[in-house]
Write a structure and sequence with these properties.
The protein is α+β, with helices and mostly antiparallel strands. The chain has one domain: Electron Transport, Fmn-binding Protein, Chain A (Pnp Oxidase, Chain A). Helices cover 27% and strands 39% of the residues. It has 6 helices and 8 strands, in the order H-E-H-E-E-E-H-E-H-E-H-H-E-E. The protein has a 6-stranded antiparallel β-barrel. The protein is globular and about 50 Å long. The chain starts with a helix and ends in a 7-residue tail after the last strand. The relative contact order is 0.22. The N terminus is likely disordered.
């Protein structure tokens, strides 16, 4: 960071309180899907929380996040026991500018394993199209394809500017 940039960003520039944001959360989520390859997945197990990096893709209807995981992992076992998960996707670059420039999106939802079939093929193809180097991993019999159905998202930008988006629940007919 240059001296000029350092001078511009003083401690007083960083907000001390959270404020209500007005970000178009769905638009930001779509942009993060285009620009970011990995998310941090949070699950809960018998010994407490667990966080893991996953390669992800947003579903075409923007209602879910897809990722693959080996069936031998703690995160997989955790999701089988407790389907409530969250994912964090962010734009940080590990620099001072991150305080005011980076964005973070926390996605809350329920994880479900998608078994072989038409839906599996559709979602596996979608994930593999974003992460070509993972095609063999996604197709392996020891890999589970997971779909997180989004219930809400919280976007934070400019250090403490928070905007929330909740999905609408469909009523049964």
């Amino acid at each position: 960071m240059s001296t000029t940039e350092n001078t511009r960003m003083r401690r007083s520039d960083i907000p001390a309180k959270t404020s209500k944001g007005n970000a178009d959360v769905l638009d930001r989520l779509k942009r993060l899907d285009r620009t970011q390859r990995h998310a941090v997945l949070a699950t809960t197990g018998r010994t407490g929380p667990l966080v893991s990096l996953v390669a992800f893709v947003l579903t075409k209807d923007s209602k879910g996040i897809v990722f693959a995981t080996p069936t031998t992992t703690a995160k997989y076992r955790n999701m089988k026991k407790d389907t409530n998960v969250s994912l964090l996707i962010d734009t940080r670059e590990n620099s001072r500018r991150d305080y005011l420039k980076a964005e973070a999106m926390t996605i809350f939802g329920r994880a479900k394993e998608i078994k072989e079939g038409a839906r599996w093929a559709e979602l596996a193809t979608l994930l593999a199209s974003k992460h070509k180097e993972l095609q063999s991993f996604i197709a392996a019999p020891t890999t589970a394809l997971m779909l997180v159905t989004i219930s809400r998202c919280v976007h934070v930008g400019k250090f403490q500017e928070k905007t929330e988006w909740k999905t609408t629940k469909r009523t049964r007919r």
